[in-house]
Amino acid sequence: MKLGNLLGLPLNVAFFSFIALIITAGTLVLFGEALTNPADIVERVDSLPLTIVAALTFFAATVGINLVANFIPPAYDLANLFPSKISFKMGGLITAVIAFSSVRYGFR
Fold it and tell me: In which family does this protein belong, per the annotation (predicted)?
């Protein structure tokens, strides 16, 4: 895991930063202004396939970020609170129940 993070994280950050830089520079050439918001870029291109790919990409990115930031840490916290009684899977189920009930009943 350490080796994967050591190799994977810096390379991914560099790769995606490079892609963001190239796309932003491309919008400057193509549209005459630097667009940094992906939704603004997609809005200016009249292409249904591009819109569908962009929507799926935004969805995958949003779900991935929310899982890493809002689901996995509380599941591990609950599992570490009572390791003999709560596994990571049970901690995830508890987290999901609390999250869904907070959305359903308006708790924030």
Answer: Belongs to the purine-cytosine permease (2.A.39) family.
